[in-house]
Specification:
The chain is built from 15 helices and 31 strands. It is of the alpha+beta class. The strands form seven sheets. Strands 5-4-8-2-1-14-18-16 form an eight-stranded mixed β-sheet. Strands 17-20-21-22-24-23 form a six-stranded mixed β-sheet, with helices on both faces. The chain has a four-stranded antiparallel β-sheet with strand order 6-7-3-11, with no helix packed on it. The protein starts with 9 loop residues before the first helix and ends with a strand. 47% of the residues are buried.
Length: 622
Amino acid sequence: MINLKKLLPVALLLGSTMASAQITLPINTTLQKTYTKGTRTRGGAPGKNYWQNTADYSIKVNFDPKTLEITGTVGIDYINNSPDTLKKLGFKLYPNVYQKGAPRDAAISPNDVSDGVKIKSITLDNQPVDSTKRRVNATNMSLRVKPISPKQKVHLDIAYSFILNKTSHIRGGQVDPGAFFVAYFFPRVAVYDDIDGWNEFPYTGSQEFYNDFCHFNAEITVPGDYQVWATGNLKNANEVYNPKYVKLITSADGADKITDIVTEADVAAGDITKKNATNTWKFEADSVTDLAFATSNHYIWKASSLVVDPKTQRRTRVDAVFNPAHKDYYEVVDYARKTVESMSYKFPKWPYPYPHETVFDGLAQMEYPMMVNDNPLEQSEDAIELTDHEIFHTMFPFYMGINETKYAFMDEGWATIGEWLISPDIDPKITDLYGITAVENSAGSEQDVPIMTLTPALTGIAAFTDNYPKPGFGYLYVKEMLGDKLFTKALHNYINLWHGKHPMPYDFFNCMNTGAGINMNWFWKNWFFDNGIPDLAISKVTHVAKQYTVTVTSIGNKAVPVHLTIFYADGSKQSVGTSIAAWAKGNKSTTLNFGAKGAIKQITLGTTYDVDSDKSNNIWKP
């Protein structure tokens, strides 16, 4: 993909460390308090007083594909690990984004405007909770309770129902009359953390999510001819599938080859599931932030698996579940398998953490723990880029517990660099240009604001660039500066310390500094905290015989790697360059030296991922 150069000499990196030693990252009082409370440390690790709450969910729902009604109960054992006594509990009712009068930033069909989640009853430790003690404000619900002390566990039972959206597919809903992706379908306790207390940001359709790591048991009842795929492991395959398919699933779990678990002929024969009026599908997942499911009576299923951890020989099964009419989807299982393989062995080079990953043929482009809801695409390169982008989210935000609602760049930026790097690993013909032009065209505009701006405050083009390509460039540039080995060491320090927890941006910055043994605050501040424009120019070229010196000036104020391509008259070319460390001392110009191999036709500054707002000054000709 990008032609990354060799690791910068140690002396230059040490020089940049010394130059940036006095730079501290600006931090607001809310986040500063986490250090004084001892919940987080300035070195990036969780503090001695770090805590997070958790819950054990037992979900039982019935889904009627004809009426689209979901009715069910959720039992919640909630543990207050915080040092605070809780006088209320916060809940998320995500389906209320479709409720009449709810604020939303996406247009929906009038047919999908609903009454939202109907709470039939709530009990707390087996005692009924009066409805006057709960207050529903769109997707947020608060419940006044008898004070819950630190380390106390309480049990809640909630009976509820709602109508699934049919036409307005915001991340889930009806795909066609016999296929549905069902997400955010149960009341859940909101996150209570050491930064904000209760997470009371409303869900309006665009911002994404923040949930605690919990244990889930789900029983999903659907008509007898429907299959169900979900987060977690299917616990009762023998009760819902006929023996042929149980055997095929078991075979796919241990086979590298692609297994056709359900074919068009199987669907036509109608002998896949147990012949009951309804079947109840039981799933279990541990240490995940959410549970979603998909169901269909006519989709086919391809699967493969691979060893993701050579030390333990642990395997992950990868599924593609789709409408056979979508011919482009037949290759998705291969794209998904190669993504999981690349993530495990190349980038971020961390064993894929979950037992399966199911890519479901839907109407969205959205990720969930162990699940992806992806629309079909005609062009293979588009399908590859979508598949690897959404699957990459398994690490960020799910494995890392990121607060996407506030800090979307901490997950979308990683999925963007993952897409840039993994897509050509799947198909070497791909050069993924996702988001590059948007950054170059919008840099310095009124809407262009620092990446560290909270996601709910972003508007216009920044709602895209600050979440996706701009942080993606930042991660890519640090990867080049450190070199693959040291970058992986630093990134693994972050992953190792914070997986299964809730890192904030400073935890990432500090973990990377500590893991690399290099203070990179000059770059974090420049790229993530400061406004500015990325704009380099070739300002001077001199030579003595064949020894050339090229001076590159930073006209803008964003650090960008310096890469030159020398084109020779005989058609050959040569690459010369250096990383963003060239700007670590605050200098406005830098020089590159090379020996010419022949007559030079022209010198060009910049490669695909060297973002530059004005490329008119990037070419020198003799």
